[in-house]
Specification:
With 129 residues, the chain is an all-alpha fold. It is built from 3 helices and no strands. It is elongated.
Length: 129
């Protein structure tokens, strides 16, 4: 039985992370539509007490998520740099570039997640006023 090349595993992981980014984007668009609907209700002054409660509870949740995302990115950044350095030091440049793809895509995923949560915090803050 042959061994699976490491490049295939790296490419597979990168593709999985890319799929996760697209799923995250789709979920973001759905949540954004809900917030736009709430904004329309706010502009028409038709927000119910239930809507206001939903906005304030989600604002708290997204503030926590955004703070966690910021901490994760701050922690992951030096780790990604260390791993990239190790990969570049011990592998040929051509091979290293294949594996560094996973690091880049993972970092992009973390940034996208942070940006989405920051946008929700900003939008919910505006709705909460």
């Amino acid at each position: 039985m042959g061994q699976i090349p490491l490049e295939l595993i790296s490419n597979f992981i990168s593709m999985v992370i890319l799929i996760m980014i697209f799923v995250k984007y789709y979920q973001y668009k759905q949540k954004l539509d809900v917030l736009k609907g709430l904004d329309d209700l706010k502009n028409k002054k038709k927000l119910t007490a239930e809507d206001k409660s939903f906005i304030s509870s989600n604002l708290k949740d997204y503030q926590i998520l955004f703070a966690r995302d910021e901490q994760r990115v701050k922690l992951a950044y030096p780790i990604f740099i260390l791993v990239a350095g190790i990969v570049l030091a011990f592998l040929e440049f051509k091979e290293a570039m294949i594996h560094l793809n996973v690091i880049v895509v993972a970092f992009i995923f973390m940034q996208v997640n942070k940006i989405h949560n920051r946008n929700f915090v900003n939008l919910l803050t505006e709705l909460n006023k």
